[in-house]
Amino acid sequence: MTHPTQFRYTKEHEWVDLEGNHAKVGITEHAQGELGDIVFVELPTVGTAVKKGENLATVESIKAVGDVYAPMSGTVVEVNTQLESSPETINQDPHGAGWLVILEVSDPSEADSFLDAPSYEQYLTEG
Amino acid sequence: MNTIFDHKLAKGVGGLLPALDVPEQGIEKLIPSSLRRTHAPRIPNLSEPELVRHYTQLSKVNYGIDDGFYPLGSCTMKYNPKINEDLARLPGFANAHPLADEDLIQGSLKLLYEASRYLCGIAGLAEVTLQPAAGAHGELCGMFLVKRYFEERGEEKRKRILLPDSAHGTNPSSATTAGFSATEIPSGKDGMINLATLEEALDDTVAAIMLTVPNTLGIFEERILEVTEMVHAAGGLCYFDGANLNAFLGRARPGDMGADIFHFNLHKTLSTPHGGGGPGSGPVAVAQSLVDFLPVPRIVKDENRYRLDWNSPHSIGCIHSFYGNFGVILKAYAYLLLLGDTGLREVSENAVLNANYLQESLKQTYPLPYERLCKHEFVLSGKGLGEGISALDIAKRLIDYGFHPPTIYFPLIVPEALMIEPTECEGKETLDRFIEAMERIAAEAKENPRLLHEAPQYAPVRRLDQTRAARQPILTYPFDER
Amino acid sequence: MRYIANTGADRRAMLTAIGLSSLEELFHDIPQEVKDRFQPLELPTRSEMEVARVLKELSTLNSCQQSSISFLGGGVYDHYIPSVVSHITSRSEFYTAYTPYQPELSQGTLTTMFEFQTLICELTGMEVANASIYDGASALAEGVLMAKRIVGKGRVAAAQSLFPHYRRVLDTYCWAAGIKVIEIPYTNAGACDLTALPQDLSSLVVQIPNAFGVIEELKGVKERLADALLIVVTNPISLGILAPPGQFGADIVIGEGQPLGIPASFGGPFLGLFATRERYLRQMPGRLTAQTVDTEGKIGYTMAIQTREQHIRRERATSNICTNSQLCALAATVYLASLGADGLHELATLNLEKAHYLAQRITALPGYRLAFEAPFFNEFAVRVPTDPQAIRARLKEERILLDDPRFLSALGAPNTLRFAVTEKRTKDELDRLVELLEVI
């Protein structure tokens, strides 16, 4: 399995690592492959409030712009500033060092609709 | 590639300008020090031979229509008649100042007036503005006209523009720049607009539909009359993007298809040069219902005199410094005079014939998503030609065969799209050579894919690192590293 | 037809290959109703020789230029264009090429774009410049839209002393975007009154030199703008002598590049200059070329950060702009390269000195004085003792051309005539003008 089993996934190709009421968010191995070499990342400001489904961040490659949607509602408590100078980290380690944002979530039950790793990979084969 | 900045900053060579012939007062006296430049701009002082050699060498690593086949879909890379270049340089035209009194520039005004009449005739619409400086600028103008039209009717709730998913990127961006939102409607399996889908999308919040006819798949909307009727019935306007006018020049008119607004790309359909990216010209023709909103000044004829009319209280205002790209419009006007009605018909005839011939020949080797009569262009897919082979690889390998590649990755609805438009100017001989090259590349894709992946091998540079260019962009000459 | 390579035999062979028997069948997909409604232009086909004659006759109806002495200005100036410029721009590898989406075949265009971007930054003192917009006015409009995207406020303050054509285009774009334009009047000295600036602005737009030719003082302005951006509209030739706006904290610098080797051509095609700070790079509209390397490590150029542009971002693009004014940008590049830094300084000096000589001689005449006591470059406004239209008409009889005084009247400066003096105006021409004014 390419995608870590301890994460949960959305159909918009985000992964979520939920611990208590903190959710670490990134884009999946599949997503970074589709985008190609990532050249720029636009991250939200710490303190921004987001609703589930709203635009959270933007990931740019040469040929495309990938919108990252907030998988859960909450407040941005940390962003991966290292991506400003090394956006390629997302390509190299999308599930680890290439994380994007940490949210303090307001409604943990929003995680109920997420896919687990096998379901996400199944979803990829259907698409 | 060398830039001029790679040359040393020698002392000035002079020789262009005469010495000062009035008594010198001195810059220090005339301009206070706080307003004066302290450091000279780092522009090298080259001798004329060095300068000419530099740009001549640069021209040789460029490829224009005069160099060879240029089948870029939706760009209409047709031959640029040389006579038009000479005519634009006539001193009477080249030196005319836009603020000169009208009696001194009757020639320019007459040209613009007559060009306007011909463009209206081609569009089958009532009036035209020549101000937009490019197709996208024309689209923006069109969107401004739509906005003003509904403002005047008190229907500001109409905030949506409908676009097919095959639309050119300038369409949605023009819509949003004008304050509308863009709603995409998916194309049907036949590549055309599905009337049921359109019906669902239409309501009283729709301001207009933006269509390219034929569409970017090269397919003519056979139900165009129904489409425009439906939009009109819902109270909306029909905007036609004229990028593909070459397909029916001289035999059909957008106004007759239900268009209310239509923009031209003079640098596509009417043969004016692309210039490496511009300047273009994107005149916009409109139906009678929109005439009052056209930009000012309008060019008007009173008996035998031409003048600029600023009196148009409902006009959207101005979108260009002056009257449009006169120097470009002149070339299109001359082209129309050269071709005449017969010539215009021959354009669409040969353009569509050439495209169908290529499509018929190439569909043996490349997937053809929409197998039917095309107009002046068609779209192939580069998918499945070989393991890991992309449209980009095919395009780069075509460069090794001496051709400019077709448009790639557009329209978005075809994966690994290759959009091919031969134009009417190319002869069967060139088309056959292109077919042969494409077939050889398809064979290479299976037998020796490395040739595609490493292409181009014979161009002035190999494949360029786009990622590096985007990650740490160097957008000006790195003087400090020299 | 002359521009079509196919012969009748070619066409027949191709029809056969497609499986059709007539050319008409190629158009069966167009509804018959539409084809029936078609009307031709009633235009005959003409030979090249005939068309050349028609156009030449038309050009002679433009009786103004050849024998007249032009003091026309207003953003479009009669500068000397070195012969080199048209020779380079006439090379068909440059002018018949398309936008450089395939960089391997377009290093000529891309290298000149890179040179152009660099030159504009050098002139304006800014960090990054794009490869041009359509003209100065649309560049200004794009700049104001960009400032709104960055700052978020729906108001822009614009100096009353902008050229009218800039202001008209700005008003149209701002109406469409829902941005309120607040006009800032000028002082007795002809400069923008920056003492009581409105609040909650996205940007302030100032033109230097302005419509009266006055060079605005920008020191300290940026500091008083809160988070609004300072947008300066400039004349590129003046930057051969004047301090670049970047030095005063300008956020966006706009200009009309026509003076840089582009003929007046009745108002177009022109060249929109656009430069800004690196921190706003991703909000900047228009094309950008970047330096990079190929697979063999050779330096080359390619279009960069196209993700701002319409073909990728579509409805969220920074602008809908696709075509730029590339051939005009090439002309400007060759123009500046043929002058060099020293030549540009010399050129600007000639403009400055000749304009001031004329101003001095005119204001020595009874009843004539400078409209504004302020520094100017090569354009200046003069209060005249009698009807300015009459003066202008009399000069026109002698084939000396001045701008219509109603432009300045509309800006609140009646009884005023404006003079633009370039390096092309000889001492004899200047003296002749003064002689005529003496007796009018």
Note down, in words, how this protein is organized.
The complex is a heterotrimer of chains A (about 130), B (about 475) and C (about 450). Chain A is an alpha+beta fold and about 130 residues long. Chain A has a single domain, classed as Beta Barrel (OB fold (Dihydrolipoamide Acetyltransferase, E2P)). Chain A is built from 4 helices and 9 strands; from the N terminus they run βββαβββββααβα. In chain A, the strands form 2 sheets. Chain A has a 6-stranded antiparallel β-sheet with strand order 1-2-3-9-8-5. Chain A has a 3-stranded antiparallel β-sheet with strand order 4-6-7. In chain A, a hairpin with a 3-residue loop joins strand 6 and strand 7. The two termini of chain A are about 15 Å apart. With about 475 residues, chain B is of the alpha/beta class. In chain B, helix 9 links the parallel strand 4 and strand 5. In chain B, helix 5 runs parallel beside helix 11, helix 6 crosses helix 7 and helix 11 crosses helix 13. The mean pLDDT of chain C is about 95. Chains A and C meet through strand 4 of A and loops of C.
Q: What share of the residues of chain C lie within helices?
A: 25-40%
Alpha carbon gap, first and last residue of chain B = 15 Å
Chain pair sharing the greatest interface = B-C, 205 and 205 residues
Question: What do the pLDDT scores of chain C average to?
Answer: 95
Number of strands of chain C: 14
- How helix-rich are the residues of chain B, as a percent range? 25-40%
Low-confidence stretches of chain B: none
Structural class given helices, strands, pairing of chain C?
Answer: alpha/beta
Oligomer: heterotrimer
